[in-house]
Every structure is written in C-alpha cells, then in structure tokens.
Recover the amino acids of this structure.
C-alpha cells in the first residue's frame, strides 16, 4: 500500500504545484484532442491508430511533467553534455542508422528512435547556454561560434536526409540569436547572404529534393507523379470551402486521393472537413500557444531560460508554417509534421518534452536570478 | 532601431536585457502573427476564392460515371421460337493504368487463367484505341474453375477484375448460322468505327447476318450510373445516381424454324442452299445454306484451330450459299424467258418449234443440243417448259436478241442484289452486252445469246435471286423485296410492331393469259407424265408448279457426252424451283445444289420435303 499512497501524494503534489501554466496546458490538451479527432477521421476510423497516438501523447505528457520538475539551472548545467551527447548520437546514426529511405533511426534494441528529435531540444539549449555567457547583443564573432554550433547537427541531419528536421533545428538556433537581440542591420546582411547562397544549396540537394522544388514551382507539369501530392492537397483544402465538408466527410482523404493523409498531409484533411472557419480557429490556437510561450519566456528571470523558452516557442510556429505552407502549395514539400495533429510518435514526444522545458521555466520564474 | 554599443567590462544589466528580450519577443510574435495571417490568407484564397474550382476537381476525383451496357435484343422466328438469347457469364478486364509491367502481369496471369495469343493480341490492339484508365476486356467467358483460381490470387493482380456480363447464345446452332449470324468481340477495327459512348461496357457486336444487319436495333442504348470511386478507381458503396439502359429491341424474323430445320436436314451437309419465300409479301420462310457451322464458336473469340478447320474446309461452311453462292441457273430460267417471248410478241402460246436434237444458228455450223437425242418433235411453250426443250428457248433467245433478253430478265431481279436484309449478298450475273463489254471488252456473240436462253454461259444466280424471281412469277409479276425481319418488340411484354416493307414493284405482266400459259407449263413439269419432275406432287393436297434445272459444271467440248471426267453424280449443279398452290401461291421454294445428277433427281425431292413441312405449319398463321 505504501508505494501506492506515495504515488497518490506525488500526483496531488504535481497537479497542485503552480509549476504548470494552466492556459498553455489547456491549449495543448485542446490541440491534442483536435489531433486525435482529426486522426480518427483521417485514418477512416482506425481505432488502433488513434490509441497509438493517444499512448504517445500519454508518454509525452509524462515526460512533460517530469521535465517541468527539473529546475532550469540544472538543465543549464547539463546543456553542453546533452548537446554533445545528441550530436554523438547523430554521428552514430550516420554510421549505423536504419530506416525507410532516410537513415534517421537508431535501434536501441527495445525501441527505435530518431536522435534528430533530441537535437530539436538540445540545440536551442546549447545556443541559449552559449549566448547567456556572452555579451549581448551578439556580434560577428559570437555569431560565428553559434553558426558552428547550429551547422554541425544541422548538416548531419540534412545528410540523412531529413530536410524538414534540419530546417526546424536551424530555425530554433536562429530564433535564439534573434531573441538575443542581434542587431537588425546584421540580420539583413545575413538574410542577404543567405539569399545569395541559395543557388549553392541547390547543388548540395538530393535529386528528390530538387524534384520537390521543381514541383512546387509547377505541380501541374507532372500531375500523376511528383505533382500529385501538392495538387491533391490543394484540391482537398480548396474543396473544403468556408465551412468544410464535415467530420469524416472529406472525400479526398477517405477515398485515398490525398497521400499521407494521417501524417504530413493531415492538415489538408482538417481543412477539407472543417473549412476556412476551422483552419482559422486552429491557426489561432497555434498562435495562442506561441504567444503564451513567449510570455513565459519574457517572464523568465535569466537569459538562458528566456532564450530557450523563446526559441522553443518560435520553433513551434515553424512547424505550423512549414506544414501549412506545404499543404497549400505556398512552400515546397518538406517533411514537417503538423504539431500534435500529424500521426507519428517521436515528434509528439519531443514537442511535449519541449513544452516541459517551458513549464519548468514558468515554474521557476520567481526564484531564478540573472 | 538604435544601435547599442556594448561597454567593455560592464556588468550585465539584467533589467535592460530583459526589456530588450521583451521587445524582441514582441517583434517575433508580430512576425509570427503576420506569417500565420499570410497562411490564413492563402487558405482563404484556396477555400473561398477558388472553392468552386477545387470542389469540382474533388468531385471529378471521387465521382466516376460508369456505363451500364444495354441488354441485347433477342431474336425469334415467326412463331416465337428463340434463335438468339443472352446468358450470364464472366469476363476478365484490365485497367492498363493500374498495371506497372503489363507483359510480366500477363505472363503471371496466364498461369492462373488460360490466355491465348489471340486474347492478348486483341487486348493489345484494343488498348491502343482506349484511354489508359478504361477497363479493357482480356478474356471472355471464364470457366468456374478459372474464376475460383483467380479470386484466390486476385491481390497479385491490381487493375485486373472479374466482371459479370451477358453473352450471346444460339440455341439453334448451325441451322441459323448464316441467317441470324453471330456476334463477336469488338476488335480494334470495330472500335474505330463505333460511337464509343454507345458501346461503353459492351464487348460484343454483331459480325454477320441479322446480328450485324440490325445491330443498331438489337444493341439498345447504355445507361449510366454515378459511383463514388477511390484513388484506384474502385467503386465504394452504392451508386449515387443511375439511369437505366434501354435494352435492344427483340426481333421477330419471318423464318419458320421448323421449315429451316427441315431444309438443313434435307441438305444433309451437301454444298447447296434452300430458299423459301411467301410470294404474297416477300417474307423469307427458310434460308438454308449447307454445310453450316456452329455460330456459338465465334461469340467469345474462336480458337485458331477451330477457325483454321472452317477456313480449310473445301466445302466452305462460312459461305452463305443462299445469298452469296453463285449457281448456273440452267433450265430454271426457261419459264421467265418463255413469258418474255409472249410479252414481247415474239411467240404466241400455241406457236410450235420443231426440236430435232440440235439447233443451228442460221449460217453457222455449230450445233446446240437438246437433252433428248433426236429431239422432241413439235412443242409449244407449255410443252417446252414441261419437258425442258432446249431448242424452243435457243430459238426464242436468238429471236429476242441479247439486249431485249437482258432487259426482260432484269424485271425478275436477275443480275442485281434482291435487297434482302442481310449483309454480303452477291449480285450474280445476268448476261448482257454491257456486262460483257465491261468485263471482257468484247462484243456479245449470237452463240452466247443462244446458250443464255437455257441458263448457261455467263449466267450466275444466287438462290435468293432465283427464289425472288420465282416468287415474282408466282405473284403474276409483282416483285417484293425479300426480307427476314417481320416485327420488332421493345420488351418481352410489349406488343410486336410489324416492320413496314417497301411497296412492291407493280406487275410488269400485261396479259394474264401469257402468265397462265407459263404457269400451265410449270404445273405440267410436276403433274404431266411428260414433265421433268413428274410424280413429285403425288399425295400433296395442292397443285405444285415447278421447274427443274441441271446445269453443266464443266464445259462440254465436242460431241462426247461420256468423256467428262467427273462422275455422273457430281457432274452438274442441280436446281429445282416450285410454288404452290399453283392457282394462289403461298410459298415459292428454290433448291440449289453444287453437285448432283439432275434437278429432278436430287433437288426436287428436297423441295417436296420442304413443302410437306410447310403444309403442317401453314394452317397456323402467326399474329403479325
């Protein structure tokens, strides 16, 4: 009986503890429920798939609660080791990885996981850790060091090849620098340089990535091949209209015209079934989560926490933007899931872990000092 | 934004840094809000601005219009005996778009279901004329074993499906192979000439006979249904809407199946034909050609060996001798010529000619023989017909001259298709100056006119032609267009609607007495002791009028009767024509055999069997 009683006491403690930001938690729960409902429809009422996803949410939720208990100062002290560890795992994947098409997975015997998901957290931590020891706003030299910190894991991930995650990882690092107060004129110079280097990027791309870009420019050139995803997605979205076709009435997904309708293209299913009204409501919910995250960041008491919380929040937006842009033909096809709605374990778990960090920063706002 | 110059060695100003972060966070939030606003605008553009377009494309994706092929009309004889019916079967169809490697798939499929080279050839040819997402038939009429085998392995073959359909069957088989004809698989050549919409989902089309002639009426028009399909084009759930097909019309032929059976039985496979016509209206009562074949072989694609057997058969079973077989008419033309002599004022019925056994054109040495050595003495027209006296007609033809001869004979329809409602009718040859000039670039010689008078020389008739001429003669010169289609019906319980026939040509016989003289001659053929077919009418309740014909198959050279290589049994093409009752004819029948001793010996008995069979049926006249 004793362990049970102790567990009950711990649960009571966890829930009463003011460490959790209730508005953020509520928004995440609503988002998760929307996600499950959408998946249930998109999978054509596949209960096993929905249960799987709910299980991952549960796992992610536990992780969120655990991380929320860890003080940011502890996280900060571990940061360099976590970063180095995750980069080492990336190297291990590069040497021994296994997966379908892309070598992203590391088999740990019991389970397989993607070290790149880990990097989504450890990289902003590392950049925040580095910046908080430097004089801010950062200058070119600091910037150079940060660039190396970002590029090392990003290149390893891009090589896998997993462009979507690489984009997210780079974005989280860049946001940390932006939030650190990098002067606007430096930002514009960097943007200009990036634009100039874009053609160079083309040279390093895989053929399938180039094809995706080509199709993005003109999907109708190959409507049954490479253009199929974009066209069918746009049809799904556009046919949803203002009010949508209704839950489980989306023909594009139910009749399987829309590929990957439970994973990368689940947003198209949502748009088809709920229409513009649903889409705007969902985007508003996402914006609320990002905004709430930034509020938590602004209230944090040390630079490390601020930068970390801020970049995690803004990186969350990148998911939504890249995925939403992809399914509406605004951006090229890049494998980025719609956060907490797309089916898939690792991204849900790593996202919730990230929100755990936010919760921890929120909980320790009063007791921390710069 | 103002630039901040960091002061070297300064203590971190936490307050300022927090404020700076706050501004950056706000800027970041505004940027994000703008980006999401842009994304929302994109959604608005797709979901509101271009909604109609995408809604249409979505429906295009999901809704597929499928044709429902009509049920082919049935074919009956005049008494409602079923000649062509529809039976349920299964076929294999392939959607090429869904097959990655067609030749590998066909090879693998061939292990499960028998696929002949012919099947694959047809399939490949059809594939070129259809769209890649069209379902194309590969194999028709699967056996139950094949269906079971395929069903268990269906997952191996995406894009291949077993589809139920109605296929044709001919319960009367060979009896009607040439009349009803047969349907066959639509091949690439057919497909090119067809209205694809009208034939969507249909695999068979009339190839010969009535099936081909009345294809439009038999086919009907397809219906369609809207079904929801998934990305593999498989239908999901129930049809959204449905317009039923209009089945093809049922056809009632003028043929009497029992008469037809008797004719086929009497021919017994000997190369030849039997035609029976109702002279009062041109309805064809029997139209038999021998040897025949089983039309059921052709329906779902005939095998190469079966087809080769039919093609290599020297008796040409695929040839419809009744309408396309060429025969030398011989003496059967004599009544028509005789009537011409009277009508043109060249002879009176009582005028006599002396038959000496050999006829000479004045001034020429060559002799044209009678059938009886030493001749048959003085004969008038009636006797000349009854005994088939050549000399009478030699001299008549010569007196008439070739131009009047061919003009007169054309009145009976010789040398031109009768217009019977069957494809592939031959026109035969009526000897004429024009025909010979066009064909041989030669003048017409008097000797050729002489032998034309006994139906020899250039003469070629088809049995249907002779039967129609006979019916015209029997009807006193009124020529109907012979026809098979009697009535049409929209459905099993709908009334039979008679088919209107073209008005007959008004009689060209001006003096009924002339016609009577010829008729008497023909009655004597059967009923007078001197007649060439004497005794044929014994025991028959009506008076039969007829005429025999025994035509040379081989040119006779010199005087030698006995030097002909062929056996006496197969020496001649033999014919017999008869109508009855002689005073008010209701049936005219023509028998034509490629080989035989004589018209009286081989052909006339067949005519009697037909008339006997007709007698049994005659009382029961069907409703129109």
């Amino acid at each position: 009986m004793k362990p049970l009683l102790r567990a009950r006491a711990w649960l009571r403690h966890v829930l009463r503890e003011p460490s959790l930001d209730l508005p953020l938690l509520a928004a995440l729960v609503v988002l998760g429920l929307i996600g499950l409902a959408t998946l249930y429809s998109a999978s054509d009422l596949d209960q096993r798939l929905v249960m799987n996803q709910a299980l991952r949410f549960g796992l992610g939720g536990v992780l969120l609660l655990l991380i929320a208990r860890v003080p940011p100062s502890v996280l900060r002290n571990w940061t360099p080791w976590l970063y180095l560890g995750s980069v080492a795992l990336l190297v291990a994947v590069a040497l021994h990885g296994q997966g379908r098409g892309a070598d992203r997975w590391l088999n740990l015997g019991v389970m397989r996981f993607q070290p790149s998901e880990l990097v989504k957290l450890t990289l902003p931590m590392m950049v925040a850790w580095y910046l908080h020891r430097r004089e801010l706003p950062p200058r070119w030299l600091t910037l150079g060091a940060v660039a190396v910190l970002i590029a090392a894991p990003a290149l390893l991930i891009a090589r896998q090849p997993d462009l979507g995650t690489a984009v997210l990882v780079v974005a989280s690092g860049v946001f940390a620098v932006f939030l650190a107060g990098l002067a606007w004129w430096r930002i514009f110079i960097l943007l200009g340089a990036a634009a100039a280097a874009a053609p160079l990027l083309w040279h390093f791309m895989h053929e399938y990535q180039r094809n995706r870009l080509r199709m993005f420019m003109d999907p109708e050139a190959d409507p049954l091949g490479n253009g199929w995803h974009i066209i069918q997605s746009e049809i799904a979205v556009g046919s949803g209209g203002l009010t949508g076709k209704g839950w489980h009435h989306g023909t594009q997904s139910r009749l399987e015209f829309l590929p990957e309708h439970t994973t990368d293209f689940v947003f198209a299913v949502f748009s088809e079934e709920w229409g513009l009204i649903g889409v705007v409501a969902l985007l508003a919910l996402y914006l609320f989560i990002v905004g709430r995250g930034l509020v938590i960041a602004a209230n944090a008491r040390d630079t490390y926490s601020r930068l970390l919380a801020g970049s995690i929040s803004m990186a969350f937006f990148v998911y939504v933007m890249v995925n939403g842009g992809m399914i509406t033909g605004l951006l090229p096809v890049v494998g980025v899931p719609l956060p907490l709605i797309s089916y898939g374990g690792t991204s849900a778990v790593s996202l919730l872990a990230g929100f755990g960090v936010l919760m921890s920063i929120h909980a320790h706002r009063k007791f921390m000092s710069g | 934004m103002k630039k901040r110059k960091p002061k070297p060695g300064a203590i971190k100003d936490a307050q300022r840094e927090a404020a700076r972060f706050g501004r950056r966070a706000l800027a970041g939030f505004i940027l994000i809000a703008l980006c999401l606003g842009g994304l929302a605008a994109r959604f608005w553009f797709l979901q509101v601005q271009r909604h109609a377009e995408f809604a249409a494309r979505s429906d295009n994706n999901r809704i597929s219009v499928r044709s429902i092929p009509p049920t082919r009309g049935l074919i009956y004889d005049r008494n409602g005996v079923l000649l062509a019916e529809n039976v349920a079967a299964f076929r294999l169809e392939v959607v090429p778009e869904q097959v990655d490697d067609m030749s590998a798939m066909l090879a693998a499929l061939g292990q499960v279901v028998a696929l002949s080279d012919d099947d694959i050839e047809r399939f490949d040819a059809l594939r070129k004329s259809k769209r890649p997402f069209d379902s194309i038939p590969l194999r028709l009429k699967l056996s139950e074993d094949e269906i079971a085998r395929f069903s268990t392995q269906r997952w191996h073959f995406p894009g291949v499906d077993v589809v139920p359909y109605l296929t044709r069957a001919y319960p009367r088989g060979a009896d009607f192979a040439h009349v009803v004809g047969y349907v066959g698989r639509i091949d690439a050549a057919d497909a090119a000439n067809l209205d694809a919409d009208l034939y969507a989902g249909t695999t068979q089309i009339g190839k010969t006979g009535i099936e081909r002639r009345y294809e439009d009426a038999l086919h009907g028009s397809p219906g369609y249904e809207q079904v929801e399909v998934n990305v593999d084009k498989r239908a999901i759930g129930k049809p959204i809407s449905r317009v039923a097909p209009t089945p093809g019309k049922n056809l009632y032929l003028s043929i009497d199946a029992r008469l037809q059976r008797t004719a086929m039985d009497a021919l017994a496979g000997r190369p030849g034909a039997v035609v029976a016509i109702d002279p009062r209206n041109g309805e064809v009562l029997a139209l038999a050609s021998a040897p025949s074949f089983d039309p059921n072989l052709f329906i779902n694609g005939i095998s190469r060996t079966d087809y080769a057997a039919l093609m290599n058969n020297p008796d040409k079973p695929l040839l419809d001798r009744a309408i396309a077989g060429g025969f030398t008419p011989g003496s059967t033309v004599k009544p028509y010529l005789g009537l011409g002599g009277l009508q043109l004022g060249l002879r009176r019925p009582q005028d006599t000619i002396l038959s000496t056994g050999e006829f000479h054109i004045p001034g020429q040495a060559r002799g044209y023989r009678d059938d009886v050595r030493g001749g048959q003495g003085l004969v008038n027209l009636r006797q000349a017909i009854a005994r088939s006296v050549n000399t009478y007609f030699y001299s008549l033809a010569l007196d008439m001259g070739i131009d009047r001869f061919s003009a007169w004979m054309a009145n009976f329809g010789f040398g031109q298709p009768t217009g019977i409602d069957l494809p592939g009718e031959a026109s035969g040859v009526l000897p004429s100056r024009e025909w010979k000039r066009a064909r041989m670039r030669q003048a017409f010689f008097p000797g050729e006119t002489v032998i034309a008078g006994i139906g020899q020389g250039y003469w070629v008739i088809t049995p249907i032609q002779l039967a129609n001429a006979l019916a015209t003669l029997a009807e006193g010169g009124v020529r109907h267009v012979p026809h098979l289609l009697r009535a049409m019906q929209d459905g099993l319980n709908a009334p039979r609607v008679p088919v209107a026939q073209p008005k007959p040509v008004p009689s060209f016989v001006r003096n009924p007495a002339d016609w009577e003289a010829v008729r008497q001659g023909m009655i004597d053929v059967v009923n007078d002791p001197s007649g060439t077919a004497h005794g044929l009418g014994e025991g028959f309740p009506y008076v039969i009028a007829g005429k025999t014909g025994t035509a040379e198959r081989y040119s006779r050279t010199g005087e030698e009767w006995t030097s002909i290589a062929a056996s006496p049994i197969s020496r001649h093409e033999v014919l017999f024509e008869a109508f009855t009752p002689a005073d008010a004819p209701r049936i005219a029948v023509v028998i034509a055999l490629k080989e035989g001793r004589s018209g009286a010996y081989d052909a006339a008995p067949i005519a009697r069997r037909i008339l006997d069979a007709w007698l049994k049926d005659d009382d029961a006249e069907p409703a129109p």
User: Anything to note?
Assistant: Residues 7-11, 555-565 of chain B have pLDDT under 50 and may be disordered. The first strand of chain B starts at residue 63 and ends at 68. Chain B touches chain A through 44 residues (CB under 8 Å).
